[in-house]
Fold Leucine-binding protein domain-containing protein.
Amino acid sequence: MDRRQFVWTAAALGAAAVARRARAAGAAPGVYPDRIVFGQTIGFESVWGGPYRNYTDGLLTYFNHVNAKGGVNGRRLIVKRREDHYAPENTVANVQAFLQDEVFGLLCMGGTANVLAALPLIEQHRLPVVGAFTGAPDVRKDSAPLFHTRSGFVDEVMRMVQHATTIGLKRIAVVYQDNLFGKVNAEAAADAARKYGGVIAAMVPHSVQGEDIPAVVAKLQAARAQTTLLFTAPQWVADILTTHHSRHGPLPHPWILSVTSTKQVFEKAGELSRGVAVTQIMPNPASRVVPLARDFQETFDRAGVTENRTYEAVEGFLTAKVVVEGLLACGPNPTRELFISKLEAFGKREFGGLRVHYERNRHSGPDYVEVAMIGSGGRIIS
């Protein structure tokens, strides 16, 4: 069986009607006698494609592990994926199509603006969503049936600036994508600087397409900052590192967020990425101390998956575990509302050393943030 287990669809209404007839009489949308079908809208074919693939691999590897043991109450867990190219309007169209398909819920969405654009539909239809590859505060809306499986960006940025200023790096430059993702993190950095006694030496927006990297580097050089926070995609982080190095020498004390895949940065920048600091919202995938990481390793080993031992894959793996726990709590007749209520009843629940906290008015999930660094050969030092 292909471990990705994707159903590559752009389902027509006729196909959706056939699926509805196949569903057991009286069963919830997406629930069939032998399977539960979820949807995923995400931008594999975008600048964030690498991290999104890693994230999804973690989800599907755990689902395949559960399916091999008989699924949840005899039902296999299936994920239909639709490509959205990191474009919010495509995300909205995909969610509308998934509502026609009658999926049970959505999993592992990607993109701050994408999730925000889809939230009205998600709320209107009470469509449960578990996992969103964004920590932006605007999408952490507890009235929506969206359950987060990562800490918020504000938590990460605060930790970055606190750490930097504590070791004397108070003059801070900020580079951010000129979109919602970048802007919310730039605002958080300004707030954190005020809180911890830092000074913002430069706020440098840049194009999502990355054609303006030389101009970005020139502004960084003029700012003479002691540390630089890079709120952008892995490819542009790598381009900034390499361009700055070729023109002015190493970029001083760069930082990246957890969503900015260290694996992708190293693949593109090589040893120039050594020393880049990174906030992580999951335990180290190679850890033998944290039970969640050990479980992740053992599940991938059993599946014969030797690549992609990444932080993003751990996040997808945790997301899958949350979904399975919620479904098990529903018993043999899951419905969307029952699933939502069972997740809200989690309280503070441990998943192998990482705590997920859900309540009726709290869907923000974990609050775990650690500081790590890219070392020699791309190895993560935590």
User: Anything to note?
Assistant: The two ends are 35 Å apart (CA to CA). Residues 1-16 have pLDDT under 50 and may be disordered.
